[in-house]
Specification:
alpha/beta; 8-stranded mixed β-sheet; Rossmann fold
Length: about 325
């Protein structure tokens, strides 16, 4: 990806914050979604948003289907999701955003939520999509969703090709421990950690009301960074001993060499959440993995054009790569 940020938006933080708040997301009509609720095998549910004016979603469809797994506390209305929806509409693709549990606007029923290494959930979603879609299946994961997707691709190995044709991750903290340390310091802690905890803590406390005794309420209320939140809530709820065990077992980076389908890993070197030193090198990946590591772009930013800018460049580049890789 030969990307350069516009001169008027210097630095990783500005390239992260401005695109999410102010940049133009679409070139066409604002995306309209149709929602499906899927019952999960464990008696819970998750919500899938489909781009409107497409063929019936659970009928045979030979067009490529672009699937997006969103980031931490994201949704189909995140700036990057709407930009990918716009790309799909422009190129005649079907488009779907499965929401991780609790991210569709309604608290899920079970004690589990979602996490960065949730490759079992990814596998179930992709299996269901493949069962009802006959065309190429192209999958992109953003931030947390990208780590989980690549973790699945590595785990699935040769079997991944039976479900999908190509995968991509964007701005994903594929070394979760390094990402946790980065977001827990200085400006990142003050701005990004505060933003995430503002929505994550109320959800966790609501889940505690659903399932009394699930975790220590006083400890969670006192948590001041994502490491503490993960240690108290995310890790034990999903079968990990603690946050360190979670980060070690859920990180996708050690599994990239196991991937056996076309896979793109895109990370800006100035991403404030993902230290450049933690990114994979060519010697740490297998022959099916392509690394794009532009100098600029921030975290899921990649703004382009004159003021106020737009965020279609990254979806265009990633979407075309997926389409070409699936041929």
């Amino acid at each position: 990806m030969n990307y350069r940020a516009p001169w008027w938006l210097p630095g990783g933080n500005l390239q992260t914050i401005w695109p999410a708040l102010y940049a133009r997301r679409v070139f066409g009509e604002h995306p309209q979604y149709r929602r499906e609720r899927w019952a999960t095998p464990d008696g819970d549910f998750l919500d899938v948003d489909w781009l409107e004016d497409k063929a019936p979603t659970l009928q045979p469809d030979r067009r490529p289907l672009l699937v997006l797994f969103h980031g931490l506390e994201g949704s189909s209305r995140s700036h990057y999701a709407e930009a990918f929806a716009d790309f799909a509409a422009e190129h005649g693709l079907a488009f779907a955003v499965p929401h991780f549990r609790g991210c569709g606007g309604e608290l899920n029923l079970g004690p589990r939520a979602y996490h960065s290494g949730d490759f079992e959930e990814i596998a179930w979603i992709l299996s269901r999509l493949r069962a009802h879609h006959t065309g190429p299946l192209l999958v992109v994961g953003v931030s947390l969703g990208g780590n989980a997707l690549m973790r699945w691709a590595g785990e699935a190995g040769d079997e991944a090709g039976r479900l999908v044709d190509a995968v991509a991750s964007v701005s994903s903290p594929i070394d979760l421990a390094a990402g946790s340390r980065a977001i827990g310091r200085g400006f990142n802690r003050l701005v990004y950690t505060t933003m995430f905890l503002r929505s994550m803590k109320p959800k966790a406390l609501a889940k505690l009301k659903q399932h009394p005794g699930l975790f220590d309420e006083s400890r969670l209320t006192a948590a001041r960074d994502l490491y503490e939140f993960d240690d108290i809530f995310t890790a034990p709820l999903h079968g990990f001993r603690n946050a360190d065990d979670y980060y070690a077992r859920a990180s996708a980076k050690p599994h990239l060499h196991r991937i056996r389908i076309p896979a793109l890993v895109l990370n800006a070197l100035n991403d404030p959440f993902v230290p450049a030193s933690s990114l994979p090198t060519p010697g740490e990946i297998g022959p099916f993995v392509t690394l794009w590591q532009p100098r600029e772009g921030g975290h899921v930013g990649f703004p382009d054009g004159g003021l106020p800018g737009h965020v279609r460049t990254m979806p265009d580049e990633v979407g075309r790569w997926l389409m070409n890789s699936a041929r």
